[in-house]
Amino acid sequence: MAIPSGEGPSRNNTSRIQMRQSITIPYRSRESEEQHVVEAQGESDAGEGREVTSGGGGGAGRDGSIPVTLADPDILDCIICYQPLTIPVFQCENGHIACSTCCVRIAHKCYLCREPIGHIRCLAIEKVIESIKFSCRYARHGCIEKITHFNRSIHEKGCIYTPCWCPIDGCQFTAPSKKLSEHIHHEHHGSFINFHYDSFLDLKLGLNQKVVVLKELTDSNLFIITNGQEHMGNVFNVFHIGPKSSAAMYEYELYARTQGCCLKLESFVNHTLGNNFHGTRKFLLVPTDFFGPSPAVKIEIRIYKTYESSRCE
Ligand SMILES: [Zn+2]
Ligand SMILES: [Zn+2]
Ligand SMILES: [Zn+2]
Ligand SMILES: [Zn+2]
Q1: Residues 87-115: pLDDT tens digits?
Q2: Distance 157 CA to ligand 1 centre (A)
Q3: Gap from CA of 7 to ligand 4 centroid (Å)
Q4: Which family does it belong to (predicted)?
Q5: 220 phi and psi, to 5 degrees?
Q6: Nearest ligand, measured from the Cα of 115
Q7: Which ligand is nearest to the CA of 110?
């Protein structure tokens, strides 16, 4: 399926181009009663712009926060390693700042002026990076989290509102995994198989069946079993459709049995956003002729949860 990749934000040179982003700063003053003009021209995510964060119709929020425009988001990053600044932030005598990791890396000598750095905290910028809150890049899909700059990457990698692609061949629908599950339930009847966690499921795959979509009956989570045909035999992979961090919550046992012989793979489920089923080294290889002359491939799978999610709901 030729669908553009839309996985989370990536840090690269182009992201350092000046851009304007909407942020919210908790702030109580008379000014917070006034209307503030907000502009958002943030990073794009599969063609989506960052949502404007607004406390109340563009004005102050109930908590006194105000939406503002950050003309240069790079000021929240360490100028040496380009990573988001985290507390503590240090400054040299001339006011150049660096993160604590970089202070060690540059042997406590400011890389701009060679003055000592690593002893004087820059409390002003620490307060700024703590108080500035961003909307999640998936706000338009329903996420209402407000995140500090240094937590954005972690949150967005695990955000349950990350849009995923419908895995049914030929369908271009995208939505967060919960909505995608509803979509598949209503639009692709007969194209998925229901199952329960912790129960064994027998599957018989035709020679040309590359993908099996599984839908769990209690939480409607979607899983994919892929069947790739390599020169040595069939290669099976198991994926959860959802954000990256979600996959570690599930494990599986996959069996291929024939008379007197059993192949088994026990592993963590991989993750996919529905558009990419490659790049994993965890798979079950069932050699050619393992099932004899039968054109069908028979496998057995049990998927189970390893722990409960702590993700935002
Ligand atoms: Zn740094
Ligand atoms: Zn300096
Ligand atoms: Zn989010
Ligand atoms: Zn679809």
Answers
A1: 999 999 999 999 999 999 999 999 999 99
A2: 21
A3: 19
A4: Belongs to the SINA (Seven in absentia) family.
A5: 65, 15
A6: 2
A7: 2
- Find the 275 Cα to ligand 2 centroid distance in Å: 46
Query: Which pLDDT tens digit goes with each residue over 119-149?
Result: 999 999 999 999 999 999 999 999 999 999 9
Class of domain 17-158: alpha beta
Dist. CA 70 → ligand 2 center (Å): 24
Q: Where are the domains of the chain?
A: 17-158, 163-305
Ligand 1 centroid–CA 120 distance in Å is: 15
CATH class of 163-305: mainly beta
CA of 95 to the centre of ligand 2 (A): 6
Would you say 130 and 123 are in contact if contact means Cβ atoms under 8 Å apart? no
